[in-house]
Every structure is written in C-alpha cells, then in structure tokens.
Prior knowledge:
The protein is an alpha/beta fold. It has a single domain, classed as Metallo-beta-lactamase, Chain A. It has helices at residues 50-53, 68-78, 153-162, 179-189, 209-219, 236-239; strands at residues 2-5, 11-15, 18-22, 42-44, 63-66, 83-85, 91-94, 97-103, 122-127, 141-144, 166-170, 193-197, 224-225, 232-235. Helix 4 crosses helix 5. The mean pLDDT is 95.
Amino acid sequence: MELTWYGHSTWGVTVGETDFLIDPFFDNPHTDTDPEELDPDHVLLTHGHADHIAHVGAFADVHTVGTPELTGYVADEYGVEDTTGMNLGGTVELGDAFVTMVRADHTNGLDTGYEHSAGTPAGYVVSDTKPTQVADEDSTTFYHAGDTSLQTEMRDVTATFLEPDAAAVPVGDHFTMGPMQAAVAVDWLDVDVAFPMHYDTFPPIEVDIEDFEREVAATGSQADVRVLDGDETVDLSDAR
C-alpha cells in the first residue's frame, strides 16, 4: 500500500491496482500538485467543508464516495457523475480494497455555508482485506481520521475491530484535535505508524509539529511518527 500526502487532509492511497484520492483540496501550501495531473479510480469525501471538497469538480468523472447527503450535493453542485452514498459502519469493496466508513466528531456545513448539513462527518479505514473478527496479520490497513476530536470509538471500535497499521490524524488544533489529543488517539489506535495532517494550512491551525512527536512519545506509544513533506509518497510496507 502506497500513501501520498498532498497537504492538509488530502491523501492518495494505492492498494494493488486501485488508486484513491481522499478529500481533494490542493490550495494549500504543502503541495505543488495540479489536481488535473491525478487520475484516481475513486474519490473518498469525509465531509462537506470547502477545505475538503474544493477540487472535487476536477474529478467529476471519477466514482465518488461519501454520505448520501454529501454525494447528492457534489453531484448537483460539482457535476460528479458517479457516486456511492454510504454511512457510518458500512464497508464497500472498491477494486482491490475494502473501505469502511467510521465516525468523526466535527461539524459538516456544505462548502463555506452552514445553512445546510452534509450529514455525519466521517473517517475511512482502507484495507487490502475484508474486515472480520479474525485478525489477519498479512493485511495492510490505513485509517484516515477525517476532521475529528478525540473520541473513544477510536479505541473501542476502530482499533479493536478494524486494526489499522497506520493512521493519519489531524493535529492542527482549533477546528480538530491538537497535538496532545491527537497523540492520545495514536496511542489508543495502537498503530505502527502515525502521520500528522490538517496543520499549517492557515493561521488558526499553525502548530509546532515537534509538539506532536513529543506528545506521542509521552503516551508511551511505540508508533513511528512520520512527518511527511507535501507530495511525498511512502510505501506502508516499508514504513511499518
């Protein structure tokens, strides 16, 4: 499994021959990528804020997954042609991967307006094997937490039953977890690798990223904190 961080909460995930793009937003200081350069098979949307769906229109011909409220919105407003609406707890098989939608605690106004909601915010767990109650040590699983506060479902459900090997967690504070709460999330998730995201994009979420590294160490977690450069790609099998 390969992961590419395009800044903010925008990630490329490759599982076998299947390419995903999560939360397309390329107007951030960490990336030089033109969204027109990318050719994903599927787009995954965590929620409807502008800094997560701003460039979904560049992928209007790409199959797009989100809550039914959100997929309906991007179909109407961005011309997205092929959508799958799903909801928390559901798993869909997409190409070589299984994608499970999990809870995120956040708000969910559409674009920059808040008169309408896009349903429940979400995160995604992307795995190369189908989730079961039988642990599969040969599987590789990535958790994109979305925009969220710290919540015990990370420990009690995501870690226990979906068993991610790596997690991307928001650390920018103000709108999501900051370094301390994000570090607790990493410890609860019991992942091998932790990637910070959703920070240093605009002033309210500017942080000293070394605070996150120190906070993870303070929990006693053995997770390897990987602070990626924008547009950097890692092979998760090498990072574990």
